[in-house]
Specification:
By secondary structure, this protein is α/β, with parallel strands linked by helices. It has one domain: Alpha/Beta hydrolase fold, catalytic domain (Rossmann fold, 3-Layer(aba) Sandwich). Strands 1, 2, 3, 4, 5, 8, 9, 10 and 11 form a 9-stranded mixed β-sheet that branches. Strands 6-7 form a two-stranded antiparallel sheet. α3 packs across α4. The protein starts with a strand and ends with a helix. The model has no long low-confidence stretch (mean pLDDT 92).
């Protein structure tokens, strides 16, 4: 694995012919969640059964988050009002979903940062845009979805691990332009942070717009279960047309 900077974001790159992003294979770009370190999703590259030529790219979000403990901090794609989020969750899923069409302050900047990263990835690592699968976990999945639905950049597929709808009115307007795009979406039925009902709302919006959504519900909370990592390998094979 190697470290680099693409589009102004620090990244960790693994896989490929030399296990450091070499070669000319396709790429999976995964964005971590709120408050996590930039290394949070890196272990996935050893857990997913994929062709050796596939490059894994793990960007680090640009913002620092104070986790409330001395010497500890995380990263974020945009800053959250954690107290407001907790109050909404305390009032129940319907209250949490009421914010689904809000565009969070900082989402536009996060999307543009990811698009710049993808442009530089294509240029420097010789990855054609149509051979890139974009995805993420939690807040990172929301940024990935926003980048996919609010840009015209070609993509091979979209991976949404424990995502929630934001900017939903805008997403519904632009999603038909992505009709046919393959999506792998997973969510825990007992997710205490991003309600399962939100995942269903997002799934239905994407499906109605013509995207091809493979939806994996699991009996768990806010995380990435073994079933999702197991499903990711075949999903990548289908969307990228490559086998191990």
């Amino acid at each position: 694995m190697k470290e680099d900077v693409l589009g102004g974001l620090g990244v960790r790159i693994a896989g490929g012919d030399d296990r450091e992003g070499g070669g000319e294979g396709p790429a999976l770009v995964l964005l971590h969640g709120y408050g996590a370190p930039g290394t949070d999703l890196v272990p996935l590259w050893r857990q997913v059964e994929v062709p050796a030529s596939l490059r894994f790219v793990f960007p680090e979000a640009p913002l620092t988050v104070d986790l409330g403990f001395p010497g500890m901090s995380g990263r974020a794609w945009w800053h959250l009002d954690v107290m407001a989020l907790q109050e909404r969750l305390a009032r129940g899923p319907d209250s949490a979903l009421a914010a689904a069409s809000e565009i969070p302050a900082g989402l536009d900047e996060a999307r543009e940062a990811v698009l710049r990263l993808l442009d530089e990835l294509s240029e420097r690592y010789r990855v054609a845009p149509e051979r890139v699968v974009l995805g993420g976990f939690s807040q990172g999945a929301m940024v990935a979805c926003d980048a996919a639905l609010r840009s015209r950049r070609p993509l091979a597929g979209l991976v949404l691990l424990s995502a929630a709808p934001v900017a939903l009115t805008e997403w519904r307007r632009t999603a038909p332009l992505r009709a046919g795009l393959s999506v792998l979406q997973s969510h825990g039925r007992a997710d205490p942070i991003l309600p399962f009902a939100g995942a269903e709302l997002l799934r239905d919006a994407l499906t109605e717009a013509g995207l091809s959504v493979e939806f994996l519900a699991f009996n768990g909370g806010h995380g990435i279960p073994a079933g999702a990592t197991t499903a990711l390998g075949p999903f990548l094979a289908r969307t990228l047309g490559e086998t191990a």
